[in-house]
Specification:
single chain, 285 residues, alpha+beta, 20% helix
Length: 285
């Protein structure tokens, strides 16, 4: 008989069927009345909800099939953190030239209106359990930045600015090819995530978020550009200048347009008054 396995995405769960580790949908031919076992293990961001069309609630089930069989586990994403969208990934350094020993680093930005206490929060590029735990007492103010470093001592030696708030060390490097980064609060709920793909890295460039309010999970809203550590990206500064220029010229147009309208009305009024005076003079004569 046929046994079909509906496999979830690898980001959702691990799946084992008998002695096989399943990473995609699978179909095999098995003997009737011979027990088969399937086990699932959800990743940190998901909850196992059961098996489609079946009553079992365990994550590991053993079945003695008598007919063709389809096994499909059901998962549900966990709720996101109450701080979701408050603290975001803003800049990444995953490439350094030979004379730069600062190591990889990630810049976080507090886009909320309140200070955030990050004690016990977790930054990871893989499993939640293997992530970097932010020490107690670390906080970031509104509209401010925090740098997470691979090698804090090296980072501080390379970047001497006292205004840069940085902590470390996370014990994993960031891939130049691709990565899936996640930030969790101290209760294990997702605050922000970012997936980036291979870039043409420049020796002085980092991956920068164009605008804090952009759809930052879409890589098209990120630029490889000159470092802007502890500040706004080059693209964001250009955007702000564009908006300021637009507001300025709108104001000028409004004032100029208003003045023109006032002059036009006044001219018409004077013209009509002059015409009335001339008619009155003619009538008097």
């Amino acid at each position: 008989l046929n046994v079909e396995i509906k496999c979830p995405n690898k980001e959702v769960a691990k799946v084992e069927f008998n002695s096989l580790k399943i990473k995609k949908d699978f179909t095999g031919i098995y003997f009737k009345n011979v027990p088969i076992t399937m086990t699932v293990q959800p990743k940190h961001d998901y909850i196992f909800k059961g098996w489609k069309g079946r009553t079992e609630t365990e994550m590991s089930i053993t079945i003695v099939p008598t007919t063709d069989l389809i096994l499909e586990p059901i998962f549900e994403a966990k709720e996101k953190s109450v701080f979701y969208d408050s603290l975001i990934f803003n800049e990444l350094a995953v490439y350094q030239p030979e004379d730069d020993s600062s190591g990889d680093w990630v810049e976080l930005y507090n886009r909320s209106t309140k200070p955030l206490d990050l004690s016990g929060w977790v930054f990871t590029d893989d499993d939640y359990k293997n992530g970097f735990i932010i020490p107690n007492g670390v906080s970031v103010n509104p509209s401010s930045y925090l740098i997470l470093t691979e090698k804090l001592r090296n980072f501080q030696a390379y970047y001497s600015a006292d205004s840069i708030q940085a902590i470390g060390d996370f014990d994993f490097g960031l891939s130049k090819k691709s990565e899936h980064l996640k930030l969790y609060d101290n209760k294990g709920y997702l605050v922000d995530s970012l997936t980036y793909k291979k870039q043409e890295w420049d020796t002085l460039a980092t991956l920068n978020l164009v605008h804090p309010d952009s759809s930052r999970h879409d890589q098209s809203h990120w630029n490889v550009e000159k470092q802007s550590i502890g500040g706004k990206s080059v693209a964001y500064l250009k955007y702000l200048k564009h908006e300021a220029d637009k507001a300025y010229w709108t104001k000028i147009y409004y004032i100029g347009g208003g003045s023109f309208f006032f002059i036009l009305v006044a001219g018409l009024f004077l013209h009509r008054s002059s015409k009335k005076r001339k008619l009155k003079e003619l009538n008097n004569t």
